[in-house]
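Renewal narrative, Specific Aim 1. Our central claim is that a sequence can be written position by position from structural information alone. The example that follows is taken directly from our test logs and has not been curated for this report. It begins with the structure tokens describing the chain, in the order in which they were read.
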């Protein structure tokens, strides 16, 4: 397949193409369970994506050390972390889900 044969006007890339012009936020989940919410600025045939005004959200377990052993006290010790970036590049092979962002 030549790069000239690629049609972004149909199939799975249609959602991405529509979001380039509509300026709606999109939601991306990666294989390390990080969530990215931002505005789509560019993508390619490998699903590499550039997002702007991005909020990255992930969860971390809080561990406590007893007698030099790392133990998780209970499952409720999970903290949610959040980070803002003005622009970010996501490699296509790490992306699991792409969706429109629907605010809660």
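The sequence written for that structure reads:
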């Amino acid at each position: 397949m030549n790069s000239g044969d690629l049609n972004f006007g149909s199939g799975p890339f249609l959602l991405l193409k529509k979001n380039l012009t509509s300026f709606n936020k999109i939601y991306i989940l990666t294989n390390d369970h990080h969530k990215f919410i931002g505005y789509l600025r560019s993508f390619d045939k490998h699903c590499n994506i550039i997002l702007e005004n991005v909020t990255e959200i992930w969860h971390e377990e809080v561990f406590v050390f007893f007698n030099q052993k790392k133990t998780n006290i209970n499952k409720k010790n999970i903290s949610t972390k959040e980070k803002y970036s003005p622009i970010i590049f996501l490699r296509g092979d790490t992306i699991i889900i792409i969706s429109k962002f629907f605010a809660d």
